[in-house]
Specification:
- The protein is mainly β and 599 residues long.
- The chain has 3 domains: 352 residues, no CATH class; 128 residues, Immunoglobulin-like (Sandwich); 93 residues, no CATH class.
- The protein contains 9 helices and 32 strands.
- The strands form 5 sheets. It has an 8-stranded antiparallel beta barrel.
- The chain starts with 7 loop residues before the first strand and ends in an 8-residue tail after the last helix.
Length: 599
């Protein structure tokens, strides 16, 4: 149950992020396009920073409790540098990942709860999270008072790794003491579950809150044998989204919920599920909302009122707990759940309903990058459940789609071609039956070089959709059941590259990431040489690389782990083979003469 269990620490505030936007258009990757349009944030540096966030409540075994953590800041430390957010590919901008984030609750001058967050991936993204002001039709909705990213909302779930020897002593916070006792330890770190919802991102440069949005989040324990990056819970499906409906009929998104059998509670996470009145504003007025159990036989059973107020969103990250009687608990384990509102003027009153015939498929790591040489493999785990319980020996099926502009799920206009000439059949994927804990393993294998889409757009993007073959194939694949796999081209490592080759490797970054180019022009030899030879690695407190390179900002950042906030390129779309080729050139520069015909 992760963050849906107890103790739970809720925080709220704002976030800042400045992703570069020049690389959001596939046509910008065409060599002939020498003056790509800037969009709204051409100089963005992909930073992700929490702003003015604080702990607003703490939840114990029997409900809300007072604790010294309440009102304390909840921050990103920006160490060793600010976290970075990046898409996997221009054709898939719906699974951005936050890399290298470190969060902290400072308790006193020398005491804090501080830990590193595993890469956090956007999930359950929806673009109609704000009530329309004209109509829901695309032409009206995208041009209304908000538009674009301001209308979007999504959820991130990950793990905070807190070193055991830095965890605050029990006398500092009863809630932290309880959390320490209930969570697991891995590699000498306490694991803490974190889920946060972000919405209302201001992407208009003239806005006073430009490049910021609202964030609400919760921390909780991590239990053994459960998913780390997904709720592993049951799902309420939002009322079907129909853009032909009246402007004042709000939209709804899917929401996880769980039945806590020990505490006899129904726990629903509504933070990413209810349409907002305004961008980053309160939930729409639904009147009174009631939870119902719908047994296969007999009449529905009311479980009471569900708090859908603004205060519940702000104080409790819109996680609602409803007590159950013994009879209700037993019924809830096998019956579907639904939510109904009292207002009859905003569409059908049933606003959420669980489909208990559905198999819940949750892929742990959904964006995958892989080198394009035959035989290369990548794997990810999948949690498969039904009614909140793991399914054992369950065999799922999958299909592989090479992504082009009109592929369902692609985030670019349909006119964009997408496919490389050799995209089809370049990869294969298999999935094992689930084990005794409900986990299956997907293995992706490269069969042949996928090639390039343009000289500046390396490799091919694939969607790998998972589904239960014993059920009707869904009209659209749930986001949690889709892998986005970028297979790079089979670029051979060159042990003795020329400067012209290095220029070709970096040409796309110089054009599409002007914020970096303003700091280091990677295709200007003098600039490249200066930052390849300076400063010494001792400046960063780092040892020499295995190949002997011991100085230079460029090789230092190129050689960081992809999860490091300092990794270069920040867009994380350069293959390891190209990176190694660049490092080979720098090594020649440091220990000999680089192979350069015109430098």
């Amino acid at each position: 149950m992760s963050y849906l269990s107890y103790p739970r620490i809720n925080f709220t505030g704002r976030y800042f992020t400045d992703p570069s936007t020049v690389n959001n258009d596939p046509t910008h990757y065409e060599v002939e396009n020498t003056t790509p349009s800037p969009w709204q944030s051409p100089m963005g540096l992909h930073r992700f920073i929490l702003k003015n966030c604080s702990v607003v409540s703490t939840i114990g075994q029997n409900g809300e409790v007072s604790d010294p953590l309440v009102t304390l800041p909840f921050t990103t430390t920006d160490k060793p540098s600010a976290a970075k957010i990046a898409d996997i590919d221009v054709y898939q901008q719906g699974v951005p990942t936050i890399f290298g984030m470190q969060v902290s609750i400072p308790i006193s001058e020398n005491v804090s709860l501080t830990g590193n967050v595993d890469p956090a991936v956007l999930n359950q993204l929806w673009w109609v999270a704000v009530l329309a002001t004209r109509s829901w039709q695309d032409a009206d909705y995208m041009m209304d008072s908000f538009g674009g990213d301001m209308n979007a909302s999504g959820v991130f779930q990950s793990i905070i790794r807190v070193p055991v020897d830095t965890w605050p002593s029990d006398d500092k916070s009863p809630v932290l003491a309880l959390l320490k006792s209930r969570t697991i330890v891995e590699d000498n770190n306490y694991l803490v579950s974190i889920r946060f919802v972000m919405d209302g991102y201001r992407n208009v440069p003239e806005d006073a809150e430009y490049q910021t949005g609202r964030i609400t989040g919760s921390l909780g324990p991590v239990f053994a044998n459960e998913p780390l990056y997904n709720p592993g819970a049951r799902v309420l499906l939002g009322r079907p989204q129909d853009k032909s409906q009246p402007w004042n009929w709000p939209m709804f998104n899917n929401c996880p919920f769980t039945i806590d059998e020990n505490r006899k509670l129904l726990i629903i996470d509504l933070a990413n599920g209810i349409c907002r009145k305004t961008a980053g504003g309160p939930p729409v007025d639904l009147g009174n909302v009631t939870a119902w159990l719908n047994p296969s036989e007999g009449d529905p059973v009311s479980l009471g009122e569900v708090d859908c107020s603004e205060s519940c969103f702000n104080l409790y990250s819109h996680i609602v707990e409803i007590p159950l009687t013994d009879a209700q608990l037993n019924m809830a384990l096998t019956s579907s759940l639904s939510l109904e509102c009292s207002r009859t003027d905003i569409g059908p009153t049933q606003i959420f309903k669980e489909n208990i015939s559905q198999t819940n498929i949750e892929i742990e790591v959904r964006p995958i990058r892989i080198s394009g040489f035959p035989g290369r493999e990548a794997t990810t785990q999948v949690y498969v459940s039904h009614l909140g319980k793991p399914l054992v020996n369950k065999q799922l099926s999958l299909n592989i789609i090479s992504v082009h502009g009109d592929t369902p799920g692609a985030t670019v206009p349909p006119s964009n071609p997408g496919n490389t000439p050799q995209a089809f059949g370049a990869i294969e994927a298999t999935i094992t039956p689930t084990n005794e804990l409900g986990f299956a393993t997907v293995t992706i294998t490269v069969l042949k070089d996928p090639g390039y889409r343009t000289p500046l757009l390396d490799g091919q993007l694939y969607f790998i959709n998972l589904y239960d073959p014993s059920k009707p194939v869904p009209v659209s694949t749930p986001q949690s059941a889709m892998i986005s796999c970028l297979a790079w081209s089979a670029y051979p490592v060159n042990p003795n590259p020329t400067w012209e080759e290095i220029q070709k490797i970096f040409a796309g970054y110089v054009k599409l990431f002007p914020g970096m180019t303003e700091k280091i022009n990677l295709i200007d030899f003098n600039s490249f040489q200066t930052f390849s030879l300076n400063p010494p690695f001792g400046f960063y407190g780092a040892p020499a690389l295995e190949n002997g390179i011991n100085k230079g900002a460029i090789p230092f950042f190129l050689s960081r782990d992809i999860t490091d906030s300092r990794y270069m390129p920040v867009t994380r779309d350069m293959s390891p083979e190209k990176t190694q080729t660049v490092l080979n050139f720098i090594r020649k520069m440091q220990f000999g003469t680089p192979n350069s015909s015109d430098s």
